[in-house]
Amino acid sequence: MSSALPATDGYRHTALTDLFSLKGKTVVITGGARGLGLAFAWAVAEVGANVAVLDLLDKPHEDFYLLEKELGVKTKLYRVDVTDYEALERTFDEVKKDFGSIDHCVTSAGVPKDKPFLEHTQADLRSLLSINVEGTFFAAQFAAKHMKAQGTGGSIVMIASIAGHNSCPGKSVSGYCFTKGAILAGCRALADELVQYNIRVNTISPGYILTDMTVANIAARPTILQDLPKNIPMGHIGDRRDLKGAIVLLLSQASAYTTGTDLIIDGGLVAH
Ligand SMILES: NC(=O)c1ccc[n+]([C@@H]2O[C@H](COP(=O)([O-])OP(=O)(O)OC[C@H]3O[C@@H](n4cnc5c(N)ncnc54)[C@H](O)[C@@H]3O)[C@@H](O)[C@H]2O)c1
User: Fold this and answer.
1) Which domains does the chain have, with CATH numbers?
2) What are phi and psi of 7, to 5 degrees?
3) Which of 183, 205, 222, 244 is least enclosed, having the fewest CB within 10 Å?
4) Cβ atoms of residues 168 and 221 within 8 Å
5) Which of 86, 111, 184, 208 to mutate to test the pocket of ligand 1 (most atoms within 8 A of CB)?
6) 176 among known catalytic residues
7) pLDDT tens per residue across span 86-127
């Protein structure tokens, strides 16, 4: 072995439970009032993180209020539209004041649009771009600014989609696909630029996971329910809990050597 390689200290490294711990860390989650965002909130709170949720909704799902009660972590809901640049920046400043630090950020706020490509209007595309791309971009930027100022590093996970990898059989979501592709491409650029501040940036690409968003999609196009399982190698739609391990992995020190990558959780759909 070359002497230029770093020395190792045997095999008795940090315990796995410590690597996966987020104890005392602050995680900001956009779109965390319900759906995948709230599932992420539960996952990180279970490993000790305090959670600041940023969302448009006045009233989050009732389980949001159980986080503090059942897991003993600090939580707070901030009502903000991620497309409002000034309000979003102010909200990140408030979180820093309220929680003392911003250590991790998950950008889960996002919307779909099931409409034929030939019928997408400029307003449709602008709305998708401003929520899914601009909202993600600036949430990541404001989080990274705080992490840089703190000098403590951090990690960011942006929620993309299999729609950034594939067409979505049975649906017409071209505008949505454009936005999720942008997040995947942007992740690699952010990972490259922010590594100097010890900030890691990764994405998760969920497949079809049952949330309010999916329920609304199915209501608008009931055939999805019959068609989808045929296209998914595992034969069924995913559940919110299927993403819990992934978010803790990518935010925590368990993935300390991972940046600029995408984790696909889709029952085998993209690989198929
Ligand atoms: N559910 C799926 O099957 C699936 C698959 C792939 C990707 N995704 C992505 O995962 C993310 C979460 O999806 P979900 O299924 O939990 O959807 P959801 O609709 O259940 O939850 C989205 C949350 O984002 C919030 N939000 C929307 N626009 C906002 C805005 N402008 N400002 C602030 N908050 C806003 C909503 O109020 C809601 O609480 C989205 O980015 C979505 O594209 C979901």
Assistant:
1) 19-264 (3.40.50.720)
2) -75, 150
3) 222
4) no
5) 111
6) yes
7) 999 999 999 999 999 999 999 999 999 999 999 999 999 999
